[in-house]
Amino acid sequence: MVKDKTAEEIRQIWQQYFAAKDTVYAVIPEEKFDLIWTRAQSCPTTRGDAAASQLVLYHYPELKEEKGIVLMTAEMDTTFLNVAEAQCIANQVQLFYATDRKETYELVETFNFRPNEFKYMSVIAELEQSGLGAELKCAQNQDKT
Questions:
Q1: Which residues of 11-46 are buried (b: 16+ CB within 10 A; e: fewer)?
Q2: Quick check: 14 and 71 in contact, CB under 8 A?
Q3: Which segments cross the bilayer (predicted)?
Q4: Any alpha helices (H) in the chain, and if so which ranges?
């Protein structure tokens, strides 16, 4: 159905389809997806096989080669997360796994390979620097009204 569409047209269709739904979705450029995927192989984003999934991000790479995009949507456990919180987590995956900043990705490596050296305050500082911390606070304040 989208074979004759441009990447931008597909992006618009994907966004229009999910705009009215209570979920997380994205259209990820090929280069960002490849970087996230490569890094996730060495530093997985899961908490282990025994942990229950509260958020699952589904990536559809079928358009990657021809259109240069990967479609993403999510499934979340709404007893633990609302859409704004799930979106914040998806943003953090992109922030930490698709970053060009060596220092940012080093936080992921430290967490995975040297947990005794990991400092939570470093993550908070990175979130504040990126602006995501302010977005989460804004979303939390909206939930209270």
A1: beebeeebeeeeebbbbbebebbebbbebeeeeebe
A2: yes
A3: none
A4: 7-19, 30-42, 64-67, 83-97, 102-113, 120-130, 132-144
Please work out, in degrees rounded to the nearest 5, the angle formed at the alpha carbon of residue 116 by the alpha carbons of 133 and 127: 10
Q: Give the predicted TM-score (pTM) of the model.
A: 0.81
Amino acid occupying residue 11: R
Taking only the tens place, the pLDDT of each residue in 96-130 is 999 988 889 999 999 999 999 999 999 888 878 87
Q: Which amino acid is at 86?
A: A
For 22-70, write each residue's pLDDT tens digit. Answer: 999 999 999 999 999 999 999 987 766 666 789 999 999 999 999 999 9
Distance CA 145, CA 20 (A): 21
